[in-house]
Amino acid sequence: MDKSLKKIIPYAKAYKKNIVSNVIFNVLFALFSSLSFVALIPMMQVLFDETKTNIKKPVYTSFLEITSYGKELLYYYISELTEQKGPQFALLLVISIVIITFLLKNLFNYLAAYNLTYFKNGVLKDLRIKMFDKILSLPISYYSEKRKGDVMARMLGDIGELQNSFFLIFELIVREPLTIIFTIAIMLKISVKLTLFVFIFIPISGFIISKIGKSLKSKSTRAQKESGFFISLVEESLSGLKVIQSYNAQSKVKSTFFDSINRIFKLRVSIGNKNNLASPLSEFLGILTIGALLWYGGRMVLIEKLPNGQPVLLASEFLAYMGLAYNILTPAKAISKASYAVKNGLAAADRVFELIDQEDNFYKSKNPVDLNDLNNAIEVNNIDFSYNNKDLVLKNFNLKVEKGKTVALVGQSGSGKSTIANLLTRFYDINKGEILIDNTNIKEVKLDALRHLIGLVTQDSVLFNDSIKNNILLGKADATDAEVIDALKVANAWEFVNDLPEGIETNVGDAGNKLSGGQKQRLSIARAVLKNPPIMILDEATSALDTESEKLVQEALENMMKNRTSIVIAHRLSTIQNADNIVVMQRGEIVEQGTHQELLAKNGMYKRLVEMQSFD
């Protein structure tokens, strides 16, 4: 059994009722699918005047002989009706039997499909929930190595591929094989000799079909990976459209897009052609078998005779036999076509479970602590840290932030300022050293409890395509409208929000594009204010703003930082001059620290940065 199929089994267990119902109805469908052709024999016997006379009513002996008993009982009543009421009445009876048989066959087909649809859509729903839960829980470090488009392709395209192809395997397991088995059993009952002749052709057909489908899985995997790159490219192009157009880089982006879409085109055409070959090839091989049967079976009807002069095979039985032989073609064709599609589904399942089974490699405490507040201080002790095991970004870094104090981190780009924010929130884990909150290592604190203690305002104001109110409620889901408005007032945002036609119910657009940079940043601050955490981290919160917006945002930040422990990663002088402690960083190490006036008096690196007005 394929490993991906094994991994789906736990998800399937939740739908045992539908699976069992599907199996039962598929068994009944397969049975009546075969019987529908058997029911044609008595009708054709009446038409060809092959009904026998003086047939004795059969006696029921055992369940094992139920098929023969049923057949002989039907023939008995047909011969009786033909003698008593004429062939027309007998014909009407057998036509009714044929109609009822086909009705039941299609009813069971629908009921089987109904349960399969519920089952497979339920499993796909559960897989999407599991995958989205994993996407949200994986550390930020995972996405620094992966394209967002590839993750989106797995969530949308690969799970969709499972629905379209992989779940065909559940039909392969029951319905189609049983249809073939029941049909062959009846064919053997009609003529062993003719059925053995059919068996010569089946292995040959199967061998030819399997040879063609061998390379499908690897090509499907390549196509799905390329689709991930393609989605990522489209997402990046939409996000960076201003840059592309301002630099007249359309031709370069188009070239990359064309190369990707061309690779997808070639792979999809190759896969599609092989899939398309499955149906006509299996049908052609099937019709070759039918042709051979017509020749061999025709001899048994027309030429070969029994000792009593009767043909070895009656014409009515031969015609029904041909119908049964063709009845094998439909499930055989479905199996060959599905086996191609299942290979695509297996490739998609591998990619889905690769993400679901992804280990986050984060240290997890066996007995995590549930911290609710900051009582004393945050301590950063002897930290070494590097991204992806490359050069150290922080080297032997030490810092203490006492409760209620504001500490600013300044330095040139690449000095490691934002890395401190990433480590405090455990977006990344440190290589060496420890971070303590009230003498408790943050690795021993419940992750959601740690992040509940921290409010984060970043340079990039992340807003979702929703109302202002719902964006701010991320900070506190059960807040009232009055609390939301109070948070907006603290963040200097209520004035512009109140002027909007729909107020706090106004939709901000995709990524907040209906608002200015300063307005978006003030909403981000309002979100942090509503959360009301004891620790606030401001990661270059004003660096992307114009002077007027910066003034409003700075006032909002000062309002928010009152009586709160704050770590400010600074870009501009105005953000940090009132800080209790300013830490100057260079290449991951502290070179100076003190108050604004103390550092100016030292006439060192901080003073040069102030003079340059560049806190990148």
TrEMBL record:
Coiled coil: none
Any single Pfam family the record assigns to this protein: ABC_membrane
Transmembrane segments: 20-41, 89-108, 165-188, 194-212, 277-297
Subcellular localization: Cell membrane
Membrane topology: Multi-pass membrane protein
Domain ABC transmembrane type-1: 73-344
Gene3D superfamilies, sorted: ABC transporter type 1, transmembrane domain (1.20.1560.10), P-loop containing nucleotide triphosphate hydrolases (3.40.50.300)
CDD domains: ABC_6TM_MsbA_like
Keyword ATP-binding appears in the UniProt entry: yes
Primary location recorded for the protein, binned into one broad class: membrane
InterPro entries: AAA+_ATPase (IPR003593), ABC1_TM_dom (IPR011527), ABC1_TM_sf (IPR036640), ABC_transporter-like_ATP-bd (IPR003439), ABC_transporter-like_CS (IPR017871), P-loop_NTPase (IPR027417), Type_1_exporter (IPR039421)
Keywords: ATP-binding, Membrane, Nucleotide-binding, Transmembrane, Transmembrane helix
Domain ABC transporter: 378-612
Domain of life of the native organism: Bacteria
GO cellular component, one term: plasma membrane
Single GO term (MF): ATP binding
Protein's UniProt name: Antibiotic ABC transporter ATP-binding protein
Source organism: Mesoflavibacter zeaxanthinifaciens subsp. sabulilitoris
